[in-house]
Amino acid sequence: LTSRKTALRGRLLWFDADPAVSAKAARFIEDGIVVAENGVITEVGEAAPILKRLSGDVVVSDHRPHLILPGFIDPHLHMPQTQVIGSYGAELMEWLAKYTFPEESRYGDPAVAQEAAVFLVDELLRCGTTTAAVYCTTHPESVDAFFTEAERRHLRMIAGKVMMDRNAPPALLDTAETGYAQSKALIAKWHGRGRLAYAISPRFAPTSSEAQLTATGVLASEHPDLHIQTHLSENHGEIAFVRELFPWSKDYTEVYERHGLVREKALFGHCLHLSERERTALGDRDASAIFCPTSNLFLGSGLFDLAAIRGAGIRVGLATDIGGGTSYSMLQTAAEAYKVLAMNGQTLTAYDAFHMMTAGNAHALGLEERIGRLASGFDADMVVLDSGATPALRRRMARAETLPEELFVLMTMGDDRSVVATYAAGRRVHERQGLASPSIS
Ligand code: GUN
Ligand code: ZN
Question: Which residues form the Amidohydrolase-related domain (predicted)?
Fold first, then answer.
């Protein structure tokens, strides 16, 4: 990275703690500056004193009156499902068989995977998402394609090769041995290169044999610091299938526990229909539950019980789950989270939602010391948001009197159109078209 210093000026917002727990968690500076050097934040504070100290050769991108937040984090999505979104009329198991598995079968072709990786990374940055936990396909080529693109843009990204050795078309299956060996080779090739991290990725219990889960447990024990990502308790048909496939197990979660896959930095997508015992197991082992509201609504999977998950001390992430999910935008994802919780007699404040999209998701990924806050030493990954991006937003914002109200309307009505610019490692990696550039002073 260049040693060039950069600075952004605007309305700074971030969270130093969880606003669901601490009243002083939100940090807001009306006219603030973030200074970055070598991809890392070196200074955050009021604009006036920082401007006095900054030497003349530092370029300040002036984004006033827009908001500047830590880049959004999306802890669960599928790279090969960008052309699956909006597939009609099926619940999970039928949706996988009818739409998703046939589409993923194409990704053994490096050209297919590369084209999709470029699209996905562009789209994430357009939505202000700077870090994601990404499922590729069974094909190692799909992981090479994604990481190549993420590395080219200097992004902090997490991804892995899906392991699956049964209950899917042959073109998508590996074996206990090849799944292990291919994952091992990809870890050696990609993990820790730039800001990239490898995630051990057994798709879910129904598509792995006991032999594959055993091999996956060995891999996990050989790499105790790596992320693990999989799916858990999304759909009643899926849960019944797991009961059939693993008759020895008292519940779905125990299948993963038995194989050493429930631990810190293990990311469990969905977690909709867990028993008290299962929640306790996840909480005791410090695993993460990933809430994917647009997917849960689209596939009719169920309503995430945030209060119960938090009550068990489980780390919570909020994710798009593209392409069961229907929006790449974390703003839209938060809007749907609010509605899911409303259906459950629960609520989500604007601070809670914006915390989840940033520092909360960083915590769910075990990356709370690197990303998700505007603080010295953190990665200089940021999103610039325009609260008045559309006529409807501008009209509604005229009545917004407080910051929490502005933020709540922004997440309810905003989307990629609200993202003015995205920065990763201190560089501008996306700029909204059709509008004036930020003035450089
Ligand atoms: N469970 C196993 N695979 C998938 C997937 O691709 N999407 C969703 N939503 N659930 C899954
Ligand atoms: Zn998923």
Answer: 68-429
Q: How many residues does the chain have?
A: 441
Q: What is the pLDDT of residues 274-330, one digit of tens each?
A: 999 999 999 999 999 999 999 999 999 999 999 999 999 999 999 999 999 999 999
First and final CA of the chain: distance in angstroms? 23
Which atom of ligand 1 is closest in space to residue 301's alpha carbon?
Answer: 9
234 contacts 301 by C-beta, under 8 angstroms: yes
**Is residue 70 within 8 Å of 17, Cβ to Cβ?**
no
Tell how far the Cα of 51 is from the centroid of ligand 1, in angstroms. 49
Q: How far is the CA of 225 from the centre of ligand 2 (A)?
A: 22
pLDDT band at residue 1 using 50, 70 and 90 as cut-offs: very low
**pTM exceeding the 0.95 threshold for the entire prediction:** yes
| Pairing label, strands 196-202, 266-270 | unpaired
φ, ψ dihedrals at 157, nearest 5°: -135, 150
| pLDDT for position 81 | 98
Span 109-122, pLDDT tens digits:
999 999 999 999 99
Q: Ligand 1 atom closest to Cα of 269?
A: 10
Angle between helices 140-152 and 176-190 (to 10 degrees): 20
Ligand 1 closest atom vs CA 207: 2
ipTM value of the model?
0.99
The residue contributing the CA closest to ligand 1 atom 7 is: 324
Here the tokens at position 338 are: 């609010």
